[in-house]
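Why Glutamine--fructose-6-phosphate aminotransferase [isomerizing]? Reviewers of the renewal asked for a concrete example.
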Amino acid sequence: MCGIIGYLGSHEAAPFLVEALKRLEYRGYDSAGIATINNGKLERRRAVGKLVNLSDLLVHDPLRGKSGIGHTRWATHGEPSTRNAHPHQAGPVAVVHNGIIENYQDFRAELAEQGIGFDTDTDTETIALMVRHYMDQGDSPRAAVARILTRLEGAYGLLFLFDGEEDLLIAARKGSPLAVGHGDGENYVGSDAIALAPLTDRITYLEEGDMAIVTRSSIEIRDANGEQVHREMRKIHMDAARVDKAGHKHFMAKEIAEQPQVIGDAISHYFGSGTDLHLPGDGIDFNGISRMILVACGTAYYACLTAKYWIEKLAGIPVEVDVASEFRYREPPVGEDAIALFVSQSGETADTLAALRYCAGKARTILSVVNVPESSIARESDLALPILAGTEIGVASTKAFSCQLTVLLIVALEAARQRGRLDADRQAEIVTALRGLPARLNLALDTEAITERLSQELAEAQDVLFLGRGQMYPLALEGALKLKEISYIHAEAYASGELKHGPIALIDQNVPVVVMAPRDPLFDKTVSNMQEVMARGGKVLLISDKAGIEAAGDGIWRSIEMPVVEDLLCPILYAIPAQLLAYHTAVAKGTDVDQPRNLAKSVTVE
Ligand code: F6R
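Here is what the prediction returned.
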């Protein structure tokens, strides 16, 4: 979603701001803009579309000044257009905003009563207008911002710049993350560490309700009550925030290729060199609970659906899985005998965070599985389990998904062990299989050339179906999501056994059916389902191991052969061909793979 950067330095701000916005491109956006103070006056440049349009504009119409703010906008209120792009300005006030102001119509009414008109359709413009209004009444910039913050409802990360105030940035956060970067004689503000990465490795994350008054030589932070507070400065690992494609054409390709490495790292993190689990803190007590509630959005939701198969089978704990946006408003009962587990790559997804807050104080334990350890979801959990995927830039989640699966399987194993359902031999067998997984993932990556060829044919399709049974069903859902989000081909997934209850009506020679089916105990059932498809002229693309492809017999349209792994690990391994199929189909179609249309990386609005 939207990205924010602020710069108070000794160099020209515009090039720094544009570079930082480039690093934030991965979050998804549809317009961008910057404002600086030039000779004491605010000036703005804004452009719709990709950042290159803003850069072009700046070549023809440069912006001078050593203080500035910048923004990439993912439209919520009002179409993507130059007029609606941030920064928004009202007289001496310029502001950039991430999030949604829910009561902005109240401000519009209030401002309209005073005869004040609007240049944009956005909620953000009303903030600039209100701050100007308070300054017209005699408030200082700082007092005016503090005053409007007490009235804002909704979510925001805000950054202000003022006419005549070349040494002042005011930042505020509620619901949308913001970080202040510490420099030498310079200071910065960013919506995430990546924005700030090359500028500094010293970062202070603002907490809910904080307002920061930043100059080149000082950073003062006040909490929601206006009290000055100390927030810890952390040193971030520049490696983790490094943003380069390492020779790949797209971030998504790089991130798919990184999976053997990062999954190997996660396995070593949790098992060390032995077979005993090392969970952080006091660990989790899985005894005496009657159920687990797993909540997430999108790809992370599919990871939870997979975990349901594992936790129920291995640990015997009933698991409910919910989409966060549904869960939070359904007001489901959450007893003290439940563990609530939230899965999120970014750790900032608004719906998942709201669902977590709903469960806090009700469930026995709030557990999270996250990629960003400093994120809100991690911080508000009793225990946050890192997935250690490293920075994921491609909007379509790949390595975060497989690392989420890996950590969720480890959770299932720990639950099973504690409940006496996993003996040491079986545990050692599974851990050994896990340790061998990176090598298998490398073999799966070796299918890339064949997958790329197949994708040329898949790119011709208008619709694609994905089928899976048992623990492979959520992976079929994920395969379909990956394909539709980056190639824009309509794709649906079904549990193989459900096909004949309706979706089989869609089958004809134009609808490829991707079947994810290792040669496991359910395989024969899936073969019957494939026969049903083929009998109706359907084209089956089977992803299976050697034995599975042989057993499926003639009539298969195409196949991709996977190495053999322990059954439990198949969803992790088979994620690779699902991702590669989507990736190469999107490349064949020429879509914007890393920043697909309409999508944002970190969804911080409801
Ligand atoms: C799809 C994708 C999204 C995210 C979802 C949740 O490829 O990435 O569906 O999985 O928006 O995001 P997080 O995991 O950050 O909560």
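The first helix runs from residue 13 to 23. This is the kind of structural detail the renewal will allow us to pursue systematically.
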